[in-house]
Amino acid sequence: MLRLPPFRYLAPGTIEQATQMLAQEGEQSMLVAGGTDLYPNMKRRQFTPPVLIGLRGIAALKHISGSPGQGMQLGAGVTLTTLAQHPIFLEHYSALATAAGSVSTPQLRNMGTIGGNLLLDTRCNYYNQTEFWRQSIDYCMKKDGEVCLVAPGSPRCWAISSADTAPVLVSLDAQVRLVSVRGERVIPVRELFRDDGMNPYTRANDEILCEIILPPADGWRSVYLKLRRRGSFDFPILGVAVALRFAGEGTVAGARITLGAVASHPVEANDAAKLLAGQRLTPELISEVATLASKRSKPLDNADLTINYRKQVTPVYIRRALASFA
Amino acid sequence: MTIKQRTGAGIGRDKSRPYKYIGAPLPKVDAYAKVTGRALYADDIMLPRMLYGRLLRSPHPHARIISIDTRNAMELPGVLAVITGEDLPQRFGILPSSQDEYALAIDKVRYVGDPVAAVAALDPDILDEAIKLIHVEYEILPALMSIDEALAHPEVKINDEARIGNIHKAVSYEFGDVDGGFAEADYVREDWLFYEGNNHAPIEAHACVANWEPHPNDPVGGKLTLWSSTQTPHYVHRELSKVLGLPQSHVRVIAPNVGGGFGGKSDPFSHEICAAELSRRTSRPVKITCTREEVFLIHRGRHPVKMWIKTGVKRDGTLTAMHFRSFLDGGAYGSYGIATTYYTGALQTVTYKLPSYKFEGMRLFTNKPPCGPKRGHGTTQPRYAVEVHLDKIAHDLDIDPVELRRRNLIEPDTRAINGLRITSCALGECLDAVVERSGWNEFHTSSSDQSSIGADVSRPTPIYRPSLEGMENDSHSSIKRGLGIAASSYICGAGKPIYWNDLPHSAVQIRLDRGGGITVYCGATDIGQGSTSILAYIVAEELGVPPEHIHLETADTTLTPVDLGSYSSRVTFMAGNAAIAAARKLKEQLFELASEQLQVPVENLEAAECLIYAENDPGVALPFVKAVQLTEARYGALVAAGSYAPPEGIHGDYKGAGVGPSPAYSYSACVAQVAVDIETGEVVVEKLWLAHDVGQSINPLLVAGQVEGGAYMGYGEAMMEQQVFRKGRHKIPSLLDYKLPTTLDTPEIETILIEIPDREGPYGGKEAGQGPLNPVIPAIANAVFDAVGVRIDETPITSDKVLKALRAELPGARSVQHPHVEPTEAPSPWPTRLIAWQPTEMSLIGKDGV
Questions:
Q1: Which of B285, B354, B667, B791 could form a disulfide with B50 if both were Cys (CB 3.0 to 4.6 A apart)?
Q2: Which chain A residue lies closest to B683 (C-alpha atoms)?
């Protein structure tokens, strides 16, 4: 059995305490919510923080408030199970409920939180390995090494954004509230991400992601499709999040298409989505949009199944996501 | 779970005296302890002053060891011992013919993970640091990572056991007139297929605790006890004794509760030997618990096998000849590989009547973790190949695949062409059952209307797959459904032990206490399959006491008589028969005294409910405990032993005939229903119907558990599991990335038990642990073809392969993808002497001759 490295565990009861602890303990400390991503990584020594600040005891991170008409506020500590089973989300933000319910396994969804999933460490099958394995291959640039083993000539890391909820929240145009001792800021969730496998988030080290803010449902409907080898447990090797709003006469009044697990950040296919504006969802248009949107997907050989396969089915998944609205 | 039992005409069973416990769906005797977490597994064992041990493993797939410097590690506070290869120079291996392993590498490492040094320290955190302080200097050697590379580069010698290049073992056999058989055929077909390697993935990782207890007056210096997560304590006992230079009398091996094995805990392992040696050096207990990654590196899993098969048939589908070649990717060491090589050829003959058969097999060394036995040992790969190949022949000849199989079924009480004795066989009944339950005929007579799948079952709900779910109501559905069928057979225990001897394969002792207590001693090792419970049910049945009254001591080489181990599906058959023999000796004594006491003839006595009573007047009864006391008063302490060895003369008289014979064979048939998405290549296995000829269930719940487990494992191997390597190392050594189905992915399984008792099995029982796995993989493969008309011809059948095949522009409506699985350089001639064997008239004929 792999064992956790030694660490101190701090258990704040309020967000304020947590931000103060984070400021005091400095850059070496890390936040932990459900721990379903962090603890396995610590066992494999991707992270060896001397201090963990546990967010589980903070009641203020577990709220679900608002209404579909006014918009919803979701505490970052809400579990994926809660989200997947919540009637409001199932009805009005269904892609988010689907995505939350497709993460990992029931046991891990009981522990894992929406905030944790959103800030999931990027993944790569050269990186998500044990210390022994990584040492045997001389490590990769994301941790302890010099080169990217997927693309050895590349100056950057190509680890993959693998959170199911990330592309969905982008397509829903959600915002996130980040709180620190310096104050708080609310940013569009799309600005939380960075196209960099090593530093994939714009969250400052002293900030805590406290809340996800969803805009009013306001006629928007959404869908999330996920590709993976196995029907449970697996991270996505493609996630397709589509949100659409129709005008009265059946034409598209608004569209957002976001792809997950095809890059180091959720990728928005805005050019493709624009083609839908003011149009009816005909099979021809869907096909055209799917083909264009899928060009944004540039898979590398650091996830499951072949690159060619993942490329080939991307337009199929996008087409199906769009067709589900027709 | 659905279980349907079909009981045969009652061969060998007296209906007037129904069994009390045999055939009853009782809980396992250790169920409560296991589900409440009370059962102790090897890693749960904590002894005072215990140290923790770990192995330093090679980071290179192939390298020469120039030097090892352990001084810095030794100086680390908390480190008590560090050992290397020179401290344990005795070679070992599970097979006497493959003594090619060292506990710690000497001179060379042969795969990423090969153990190089071992450390014992006060706590596991110190081990992390100590391991890093051991400095090993390597000279990197070229690594051969596939069958093709091993054949192409004989100059890179991986293992000195290989006589030619990297060929570990080559075998060649011809039975009957193969040329004549092909000449007689109306149609001949050849195919290449590839079966991917995979790991057993038991939920419990390997673990052991060794405890050396010094004794100054003992010339040997002390005694060693090893608790280990093993399927074969007897073999571990022998090898530990050999490597450590201790008499067997001074080594005790105990298997505590074992969390699954599936063949992966059947070898003696480096970590067991190192824990023992570290304990001897420190005179303190030492525990080594493997990580999941180490389980993948220890491996001994399913060999990747390339197979070439050529079969001749008459126009009506009758088989006339088969020529089968297998190339096994063995990994770096022998393990059970020689037996595996034989097994890839041995059992082709016991499912269908083959009038002539040629088999050539070879095992190659490669720079990967050693392969060995996994559930279905060496027969799973060829069974996949044969059943897919026969399916193709059926389509070529336009014969229903079920009908083709029925026309060639082996018959009960016959000899196979390679001399194997067949006794009971209910394969026909298995086929009938799965055909009926799955609605096979209805589906294939109205295949335009695919909704008719399943005779009287509602359509099973597909597992969660968004791409499929979205399409359920689409009138232009991209979902195509298909049914596939396959059949198989498996041994009920290897007819020969691993090392040559003429001793019993299993023995049971029973001791009766004057207070009425019953203690059963048997070396049989419960790895979760329920062998301990089986012993309890059998003794309970014979002596007429509830199973809960029986105390069981198992899998302890000091306390219990030898049982060879939980492999080759042998335990119920062999230990079961030994238990019956032991119990009946005691029963005879008890009945003698009871008869005198009750004035009832022995033949009219019955034992049940802790009473011995007159069967026609149950009021005339003697309490069991009273009978024990009367018997002990007359005969002294009441102990009886029973043992079992397979009968002689159940195989041919040629060299190599020892692999394949068994006192009986189980038979299985499977129908798989799949849904294939032709736009994405995704395959969902919606349902498996699996009928198993078990002879007689000792406990139908445990049998169904084994059948379902086999179905589950077969599903995983068919659809997703891959022990694959990249840049010389295991690509995905974790349970997240190594794709093993979870319960949520597992298809609905309908288990059908066919119960026609076997003459020699305990109460007519046969194996269930391995056989039911084998037909599942080819049934799924054949169902995919039935659904979409393409063949993948290699496992696993992943969506990328299916889509590639669907998009391949090959001629013909039912185009076949040709997999690139042919060896680049198949040696010609085959590098071993051909053994040709003709069965004699007598050995082929009938009921009296067997």
A1: B285
A2: A229
